[in-house]
Design goal:
Largest sheet: 7 strands, antiparallel
Shape: elongated
Strand content: 35-45%
Number of strands: 14
Mean pLDDT: 84
Radius of gyration: 30 Å
Low-confidence stretches: none
Length: about 210
């Protein structure tokens, strides 16, 4: 039954039946012109299309819950109380942020409802073709790590090797330039030519 009251249109299904509103463009003379909204008996609202000659779902909304997105009648993404999920891709799953020409692509992540500046991090692909990881110490986004398409990794903050770099093996091949102090708490094994302007050695030192 259809009831018009205060400019609101109500579409009510009979007992145990869905409420269906079909919307056709261009006289509905082509399957691609046909869509419908269904308020179903399972507590969902669906937007369906008839492009392939049978009704298939594009979007499904669940009452007081999530929204589900479909491609060719197969669910591809949904949201729940924890966030957004990508699923049923049939191949490698990916999420892409595509910026317009001349703009950077960014993803911001905030923990603990952003109660402190230090809860914020950002990853960015810049128009200079570099990938960066930012923190927000003191309220301003600051680059910590920079990666370019040649594979060069630049640490853009001061690095205290003894405290901030933990690895069982650090292997550096090629020319490496350190413009500040290096504090290595442990063995430092250098194989090859080394040019040191000033060396301050405390303790036992062996040259072989």
């Amino acid at each position: 039954t259809n009831t018009i009251l205060n400019t609101t249109t109500y579409v009510k299904g009979g007992e145990g039946a869905a409420g269906i509103l079909a919307i056709y463009a261009d006289k509905g003379d082509d399957n691609a012109d046909k869509f419908r909204l269904i308020s179903d008996t399972d507590g969902t609202l669906k937007l369906d299309n008839y492009a392939g000659g049978a009704w298939e779902t594009n979007i499904k909304a669940v009452g007081n819950a999530g929204v589900h997105l479909y491609h060719n009648n197969v669910e591809k993404a949904y949201i729940n109380s924890q966030g957004l999920y990508v699923t049923n891709t049939g191949a490698d799953a990916f999420f892409r942020t595509l910026a317009p020409s001349g703009y950077d692509a960014l993803i911001d992540m905030t923990a603990d409802a952003g109660s402190a500046h230090e809860d914020n991090y950002r990853i960015e692909v810049n128009t200079d073709q570099k990938f960066r990881v930012y923190g927000k110490p003191g309220g301003n986004y600051t680059s910590f790590i920079e990666l370019d398409q040649a594979g060069k990794v630049t640490l853009t903050r001061d690095l205290d090797v003894a405290r901030q770099l933990e690895t069982s093996l650090l292997k550096v091949t090629g020319v490496s330039t350190f413009t500040g102090a290096i504090d290595a708490n442990g063995d430092l094994d250098v194989d090859g030519h080394t040019n040191l302007d000033n060396v301050n050695i405390a303790g036992v030192t062996t040259f072989g």
